[in-house]
Design a protein that fits this description.
With 86 residues, the protein is an alpha+beta fold. It has a single domain (3-83), classed as Helix Hairpins, CATH 1.10.287. 62% of the residues lie in helices and 14% in strands. Helix 2 runs antiparallel to helix 3 (37-64). The termini are far apart.
Length: 86
């Protein structure tokens, strides 16, 4: 892996979509190539870091989601997470 690609995947400014795209490329490379063990491990480690970043981004987005509900004739805003068991 080139230093540039390594730095790009570690870039904190990488968007969720860019991280997901890079993760898909890693999966394709691991599935489609006869890679040396060192390269496979390097890609695996990068992939794990990207999965953690994507999971964190999704959790943050989920916390921001609000649901409009009607209580006592008034429309109120509730956290989505609090309604997931309803």
């Amino acid at each position: 892996m080139t230093q540039e690609k390594r730095e790009k995947s570690k870039d904190l400014d990488m968007s969720f979509e860019e991280s997901l795209d890079r993760l898909e490329k890693i999966v394709n490379e691991l599935e489609g190539a006869d890679l040396p063990l060192d390269r496979s491990i390097e890609l695996y480690e990068e992939g794990i870091a990207l999965v953690k970043r994507c999971t964190s981004s999704l959790e943050k987005a989920e916390m921001k989601i609000k649901v409009l509900a009607c209580k006592n004739g008034e429309i109120v805003e509730e956290d989505f997470i609090g309604r997931e068991n309803e």
